[in-house]
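Figure S7 source data.
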Amino acid sequence: MQPGMSLDDIIARKRTQVKAKKSKKMVTPVEEEKEVNEDDEGEYQEAPDSDEEGDDDNDMGIEVEGDDEDVDEGGFGTGRDEDAGLEDDEAEEAVLEDESDEESGSEGSEESDEGSEEEEDEDESDGDEEEEESEYQKERKRAYFAPESDTPVEVAETFATMNLSRPILKGLAQVGFVQPTQIQARTIPVALMGKDICGGAVTGSGKTAAFVVPVLERLLYRSRQTATSRVLILCPTRELAIQCHSVAQKLASFTDITFGLCVGGLSRNSQEVQLRTRPDVLIATPGRLIDHILNSQSFTLDHIDILIMDEADRMLEDGFAAELAEIVKACPQSRQTMLFSATMTDNVDELIRMSLNRPVRLQIDSANATAARLVQEFVRIRQHREEDRPAVLLALCSRTFKHRVIVFFRSKAAAHQMKMIFGLMGLHAAELHGNLTQEQRLASLEEFRDGRVDFLLATDLASRGLDIKGIDTVINFNMPQNYAIYQHRVGRTARAGRNGRSVTLAGENDRKLLKLAIKNADKKLVKHRVIPQDVITRYRERVQDLTESVKEIMAEEKEEKALRQAEMEMKKSQNLLKHEDEIYSRPAKTWFQTAGEKKMATDAGKAALNDPKKRKSADTDSPKRDRFAGMSRAKRRRLQLSEEDQMDIKSHSVAIKSAKKALKPTKITKLAAEKAPTKPQDQKKKKKRDVDFSRDLADGSKKGVVAVKKRGGESKRGREKKDEKKEHRGKLGKLRGNKAFKSTKKHKRR
Ligand SMILES: Nc1ncnc2c1ncn2[C@@H]1O[C@H](COP(=O)(O)OP(=O)(O)OP(=O)(O)O)[C@@H](O)[C@H]1O
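Tokens for the predicted adenosine-5'-triphosphate complex:
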């Protein structure tokens, strides 16, 4: 947006207009307005009052669930009334406590316990989500994971006793880490031994440092003769990758280890330049990484010795499966692989895709656990009151939780519209979702981190991994699609042993998840929050009054967007005219999937998100009927031709990749190994451990660093690769001969 044209500017202008309109009509305030101002505090008093006829149709377009006509007076998880799960006396007290506190507008103590024995009983008889593990599954896991006896029993109390090098200890001290968290104490020694790891520990327990520290320690012993990217850390979102990059850089500030960031939404060209310097550690999101593999000259993952996946269970989901397979294929087989998540899967079928080598399972907390000091509150939304969600949220944010709050929405549209309502009510909020540009996304995060805004209105884009200091409250405007997402969302607070609170607006359709959340929580820390109906009614009226203003803002925003779009198109055309030759001479960009395959993968991802049980691998999905059935002959032929062209481009890119490989220098680590004096008794072992990275370790034994075992016959794989290369070169020759001109022309940028 241009200066003076941002959404915040439009909202501010609209707010001033509404206020001016209101003050004109404020000559004789009505009784109800006075009452509102007495009850509520701060910004709410300034908020525009109703000066028009009430609008019965609350058409804010906010996405709410449920069917208003389908009234069920019982419910809220138990089929009982409002105070479900409480003994009668307790229930009364709870509601009274809440009401008195809401009225005084104070923060904090308005909670009551929920989750009585009756609730639990029903849980067990009714919606128990966890499936019993069969003997067969247990047996498979036993065979797949390394035996527990393989992991060191002794756990270090401090980093100082972990045999880490001085620069690493200094880095840890600089960020204030003295004692390792449990996952760090268990992971670091095993990771230094070069073993594959499946690590799971509750949100906010320090998993990032658990994998960054051993990586840095090992990199201290790398050969420095030629720069090589040896470590790849994959993250599911750009924000998380940027955060991981920053944490790693801080921990490495006393070393000479270099880092490269490879994420979508930021300048591709500058990333390409950075990648050419071959930083030691690459931190990437899958899509942009594949783009570089396919389209950046001389960039390969051939020297990756350690592959790490943060939020691995998310990355193994169908939406990412095909991309991940492509990346794993591009990494050497003889690598160390480490997977981490708070909701780490131990599903062998899923893990097999990562071709792990007898991974060590380091599961610190149950995969269903939430942070120890998290208070989980639930606000009941009755079925016929679904439209009250915005009012409930505004009541919570205006009266009780006023600072450092993340609010999660299921849709981008809902988050965006709530941003306008918050703005019109004078609440300082930033939005974070996929409809924003990367610059806008980062700016929102920055505003929230710096405390310039009190609320971050986000979709699940922000639910995983983000570590923002001092978030006191997480509010779920809707329950998320599954319990794992719920864990990640509420895990944005109560991190690193701190206190935190989540407030979830739970409707009738959320019964199952609600029960699951209560079942997995410490019952003392589960609360039922009641907001008095008259407060909700007042806020609902507020929201209704703002309907028109929101619509106007949206219209203005749309106009602005259209204008910007037109300007952009104009600039683009001018550029095309000016630099036509250069632009058309660039090689067409390639992608490893066809558009259809990509869509199928995205759809599969969405389906898995909505119903994890129905997971289906995108790459194994086969169309049920002829894809071309029902099409005219001409259309069918056109599509077939276009697919053939896509195939050509794909093999073209594979050929380029093979050519790049042929040009690359011999592994530096091999040179280092040749020079290094070897003890005769070690020679046998070294043959087996053909992993370049471990060879760089000058004195691994001292540091508790052991070489990684080689997996899969390198020589056999090498032979296969050579054959592939020959085949591709042949193909490339053919391509150049017949179709190269035709296909590049067809796929030039427009
Ligand atoms: N050893 C330590 N001592 C003190 N604080 C630590 C230590 N390790 C990590 N932390 C802090 O704990 C917080 C959470 O760490 P981190 O983001 O790595 O958690 P996580 O387990 O990856 O969480 P999530 O599952 O949400 O991604 C960070 O603010 C970090 O600075």
